[in-house]
Write the structure tokens for this entry.
Amino acid sequence: MGTNSNGGRTKMSVHYSTGDSPLEFRVDDEGVCEPLWGIGRLGWSEVREVFSKRDGGRDYICIVVRDRDALKSRQGFLRRYFSTATCSTGFGDLSIDTVHRGLQAEQVVEFASSMVTASLKKKAQQVGTDNSGAAPLRV
């Protein structure tokens, strides 16, 4: 796994392959992308929580989204089914098995959690400077 700084953007990425097609799991300052989920990039503003879970000797990176309906609208039937199943067993809405990917769950969770917090602060600042007269959004 590599961590680097590229033009002010922090990026963590891991390359792994399944069969003949190379897939890339990516976490950077914009969000997380796991090709196997089939939903494209999940931005940090869409994420409520990131945590790790150990089950059967395997570590998982678990993600809870803010709007499950929006997530489900981006998933196919089978992925919606698995997302519901993983959520009901305490793995969050989406989970990433770290076994064959060289991921260190705690390192990814720490980085992702900091990005979620930064996204919330940015949103709160934007709402706080809104001159519409509406009450600030509590996050």
In short: Residues 38 and 75 are 7 Å apart (CA to CA). The chain is about 30% helix and 35% strand. The chain has a mean pLDDT of 78.
